[in-house]
Amino acid sequence: NLDFHPTGRHFLQIPGPSPVPDRILRAMSLPTIDHRGPEFGALGRELLGKVGKIFKTDKPVIIYPASGTGAWEAALANTLSPGEQVLMFETGHFASLWHRLALRLGLEPEFLGLPGAEGWRHGVQADMIEARLKQDTEQRIKAVCVVHNETSTGVTSDIAAVRRAIDAAGHPALLLVDTISGLASADYRHDEWGVDVTISGSQKGLMLPPGISFNAISDKALAASRESRLPKSFWAWDEILEANQGGYWPYTPNTNLLYGLNEAIDMLLDEGMDNVLARHQRWAAGVRAAVNAWGLEIQCQDPEVYSPVLTGVVMPEGVDADAVRKLIYERFDLSLGTGLGKAKGRMFRIGHLGDCNDLTLMATLAGCEMGLKLSGVSLAGSGVEAAMAYFSENPAPHVARP
Ligand code: PLP
Questions:
Q1: Is 221's C-beta closer than 6 angstroms to any atom of ligand 1?
Q2: N or C terminus: fewer CB in 10 A for the chain?
Q3: CA geometry: angle 155, 56, 15, nearest 5 deg
């Protein structure tokens, strides 16, 4: 019952879908138009002309009316053939789901990772990828697949290091990167990092509702798609690229979400991608100040790769993180991310992306602190006070006021 709370708005502080700014909601409320008509073609051409700026690429970006999982499948189906080997790295739940998807498509994925629970607390280990590729003297591995921002743990891996590892091994494998939750919140550079397929989605840093996803592709990926033999039709790049020439799609695209995407891109580019990144890093630092003051552990154990998008908060032994989340939801109308897969019940996740500001994050942290105390978790100190100190001592360089 969404009317349960008589006043105020719900706090959606999960790491995607993120809260959608009013400006984007308004843009999406325009009438749906003929997707084969001239107005649509103009919109499509404008969008396709500028979407690459968010991925930092001059190459084509395919837009699908699908969730991120579809774009995962598209990246594999367009570049690979049945039975081919791919090297994937276990950083958490989403890397595991992508691995399962590769298996189901009939590929032979190898899942590299740190031993035990360690893998879910660190980023991709580029040296392990380099060592494995060096062993592959017959070059049977056709693609390296990594998750940039692992949403289940709050770890943002160093993709440039993965590129260097592939180059250092002198290996021709494609580099496929999932930045479904990293794009437009964490630093991301498709061309500069030599990524062959970048996979992303609408419902995280782009501040849109779920429902569109992306494949940004390199020349090498495009060439691979001409040889690839995995079955595909809806996902096939060739027909989409052809229709995109005129600003159209081969099927009915997600018109109103595309209005929203157009607005989101303008908002992000007006702010400047460097400012967008700095804004998320500052929010993340404020949230981590709170978690540290509580005396609780952050799931990511390597400060070099703390996520600017979300923070995973580990519960003390014997505390069920989902019970804490449930209490916070019921008492304070605040949604926090659940622990996923191996982390179920052990942690909750605080999203700091989308339509947020210092004060909405302060409210979120207040909700967490009240809920933790009500759940009987003993805290070392006040996270709210620590975050207030952080945000007041580190003013935002600018406050965007569109
Ligand atoms: N990869 C990552 C890193 C994600 O965070 C998600 C969703 O949260 C997915 C893949 C799957 O995307 P979707 O749920 O949109 O299909």
A1: no
A2: N
A3: 30
